Amino acid sequence: MNAVNLLEFDLDGLAAYCEQLGEKRFRATQLFRWIHHRGASDFAQMSDLAKSLREKLAGAAEVRGLAVASEQASADGTVKWLFDVGGGNAVETVFIPEDDRGTLCVSSQAGCAVGCRFCSTGHQGFSRNLATGEIVAQLWHAEHHLRRRLKLPEGERAITNVVMMGMGEPLQNYAALVPALRVMLDDHGYGLSRRRVTVSTSGVVPMIDRLRADCPVALAVSLHAPNDALRDDLVPLNRKYPIDELIGACNRYLDAAPRDFVTFEYCMLDGVNDTPQHARELAALVRERISCKFNLIPFNPFPESGLKRSPRERVTAFARILQDAGIVTTVRKTRGDDIDAACGQLAGEVQDRTRVSQRLATRAPIRIHRPAAQDGRGVYPPATRQESKT
Ligand code: SAH
Ligand code: SF4
């Protein structure tokens, strides 16, 4: 029988496991701290655990991290790991250091079944959900590896923030996600506050409601379009959960959220969703309906997408329209693009078990309408609902 991987458990789960071994809860807490505070994987090293418990664990359990297939460091300090998760699949994790924080971008699935047009993970199709232990292992590895490498003093953390913005749609892997979030939040684990852990979703409405009840961390929603016709084409999940329902779920979420706004992510695609007209439509969509901030993400191109990054001036003009409408708007800095670690470039390796990648490869190109006038106020009618369902 395979040894139980202790990275699979949040503290309650570990306590239940220890109880099966005839051990009290405080033993589970000690064990949990050894694993997550200290980065230990060898039970023999866990000196304050009773010898009898260490012996029981040695026969039945292990702390099983992920195999590192590669590690790359960018000139700007960003580090990207490729982890082999078996079966021909590999997932990516990215560490982004900034002056006042260290953010880890974590993957939740090998591939993604949502199939957004502008996302290289989406283009690869979907293989499988990651287990809780595989989600936690990304943080466990990165935190303890960086602490050693950066020679951080005892007790100082390398990772202060986690964003579930790597490969995959976290809310389509809900059962594994929630215990992993609990490990991140637990004071005996990584001790991150709810506002420093962000789940990013393309809009799985029922699961936004469940997250609100089970583990309300900060929420980012990938919006990318101001109307359903365009969003249907860019984010196919919109056909199931259209914008109105999504905004409703975001509003309900705010009742429990650690912040009093939702962050809308908006990937800026040249000539597709980035005109002043789109910005005005977006402002009208959210104004007085939802407390939100916008984070504009310059598109990171990859060949199969057939899409281009919006020019910088267009991004600035778009941001200004939102700001003038009273909406806090930032433009995301691109980090680590020399090692393909920027948003949407995470591709890992995925054995597609669905037809997503095939479907995307054979989809009609998105219709791009060039402005009639040169003043940037030309008309860019989005594809109609009918046309977008090719
Ligand atoms: N599946 C989740 C989380 C992973 S994607 C989601 O879609 O929200 C994380 C963010 O990167 C999302 O906002 C996504 O829209 C954005 N993204 C995907 N591909 C991108 C690309 N090629 N360039 C820039 N941002 C991209
Ligand atoms: Fe999946 Fe998010 Fe990429 Fe869309 S943007 S395909 S939901 S990972």
Overview of this protein structure:
By secondary structure, the chain is an alpha/beta fold. Helix content is 33%, strand content 18%. It has 13 helices and 14 strands. It has helices at 11-20, 25-36, 51-60, 120-124, 132-149, 174-185, 205-214, 228-234, 243-254, 276-286, 312-324, 356-361, 385-388, and strands at residues 4-5, 61-62, 67-73, 79-86, 89-98, 101-105, 109-111, 126-129, 161-164, 197-201, 218-222, 262-268, 292-298, 329-331. Strands 3-4-5-6-9-10-11-12-13-14 form a ten-stranded mixed sheet. Helix 1 crosses helix 2 (25-36). The longest helix is centred in the middle third of the chain and has 18 residues, at 132-149. The chain is globular and about 70 Å long. The structure holds S-adenosyl-L-homocysteine and iron/sulfur cluster.
From N to C, what is the helix and strand string?
A: EHHHEEEEEEHEHEHEHEHHEHEHEHH
> What is the spatial order of strands in the main beta sheet?
3-4-5-6-9-10-11-12-13-14
What ranges have pLDDT less than 50 throughout 5 or more consecutive residues?
Answer: 369-390
**What small molecules does the structure contain?**
S-adenosyl-L-homocysteine, iron/sulfur cluster
Classification by helices and strands: alpha/beta
Brief overview:
This protein is of the alpha/beta class and 390 residues long.
List keywords for this structure.
390 residues, alpha/beta, two-stranded parallel ribbon, 14 strands, globular, disordered C terminus, binds iron/sulfur cluster
